[in-house]
Automatic annotation (TrEMBL):
Keywords: 4Fe-4S, ATP-binding, Cytoplasm, Hydrolase, Iron, Iron-sulfur, Metal-binding, Nucleotide-binding. GO terms for biological process: iron-sulfur cluster assembly. This is P-loop containing nucleoside triphosphate hydrolase protein. InterPro entries: Mrp-like_CS, Mrp/NBP35_ATP-bd, NUBP2/Cfd1_eukaryotes, P-loop_NTPase, YlxH/NBP35. One of its GO terms (molecular function) is 4 iron, 4 sulfur cluster binding. It comes from Polyplosphaeria fusca.
Length: 321
């Protein structure tokens, strides 16, 4: 069985494009790794495969072996160095992280994927049957928006494989659903929650993304897109609300430029002071070669938010078992 090395599979879904599913998937994966779990990320957003870019491994290529594709390693299990002076967390043991995406198979990252539905479904099926994953605690699947061909093919193949006698119990753990606060986004994402209900997928929680903006020059977090729509939707559908995630330019800079996040004194996000590390500025903007993305992510203001979310998701999965 192709997925036999995987304990739990979690889907990241949304009925709307542009809500930040890949960003949420990336941070869920990094946080699971920081909690010591072995993690895989499967990107089935075939026309917009952005996971390689998020993890900084665009130039990597998958290897073929007997039985299928070998996913790309983001980092191995190891102990991270102690944090810089003034930070609160010491070194920690992280779990290994690997990825599979159509982006690794394209000749150029600018190549357009112009495929009809049958070829898309065939590719999704191949990703689920021909990837040789190492032993994983969690496999996160980053999906395209909507409830169309890729989703139907994904669920048909997952249900077929995860309900066999050899599968771990409740291997298909459920889904994390992503939305933004605006009413137009909420109306589309409600369709995804109905999709989960009709197909029997457990909703592990709702994440409200882009709920605020962290100013890089002052201590203010402003709700530019309003806030609370995701929470209200979760209450309406009777599913857990995992939290609100603001837009953090420091996280964007971490992904785009690889620089360690730094915040001015007095920056408070979700009641937590994340500023006051100006002494780290020089090291944050230079000398980052060789540092792991997961190590630098520990200094991101969003990490504590996702740490709490992951703890709730894991608790919900274990409660189901």
């Amino acid at each position: 069985m192709p997925l036999e090395n995987i304990q739990k599979i979690v889907l990241v879904l949304s009925g709307k494009g542009g809500v930040g599913k890949s960003s949420i998937t990336t941070q869920l994966a990094l946080t699971l790794s920081l909690q010591g779990h072995s993690v895989g990320v499967l990107d089935i957003d075939l026309t917009g495969p952005s996971i390689p870019r998020f993890f900084g491994i665009e130039r990597s290529k998958v290897r073929q072996a007997v039985g299928g594709f070998v996913p790309v390693t983001v980092h191995d299990a190891q102990a991270l160095p102690s944090r810089p002076a003034g930070a609160t967390t010491t070194g920690q043991q992280i779990g290994p992280l690997s990825c599979m995406s159509l982006g690794f198979l394209l000749a150029s990252r600018s190549d357009a994927v112009i495929w009809r539905g049958p070829k898309k479904t065939a590719m999704v099926r191949q990703f689920l049957t021909d990837v040789i994953w190492p032993t994983l605690d969690y496999l996160l699947i980053d999906t395209p928006p909507g409830t169309s061909d890729e989703h139907i093919s994904l669920l048909e193949n997952l249900l077929k494989q995860t309900t066999s006698p050899d599968s771990p119990p409740n291997q298909l753990a459920g889904a994390v659903v992503v939305t933004t606060p605006q009413a137009i986004s909420i109306s589309d994402v409600k369709k995804e929650l109905n999709f989960c209900k009709k197909t029997g997928i457990k909703v592990l929680g709702v994440v409200e993304n882009m709920a605020g903006f962290v100013c890089p020059n002052c201590s203010e977090c402003t709700n530019v897109f309003s806030k609370g729509g995701g929470h209200a939707m979760a209450i309406e559908f009777g599913v857990p609300f995992l939290g609100s995630v603001p837009i953090d330019p420091a996280f964007v800079q971490l992904i785009e430029e690889g620089t360690r996040p730094v915040y001015p004194k007095g920056t408070v996000i979700s009641g937590r002071d994340v500023g006051g590390h100006e002494e780290m500025t020089d090291g944050a903007t230079s000398g980052t070669t060789g540092e792991l993305l997961v190590d630098k992510y520990r200094d991101c203001s969003l990490y504590p938010l996702f740490d709490a979310m992951i703890s709730e998701v894991v608790e919900g999965i274990q409660g189901r078992d």
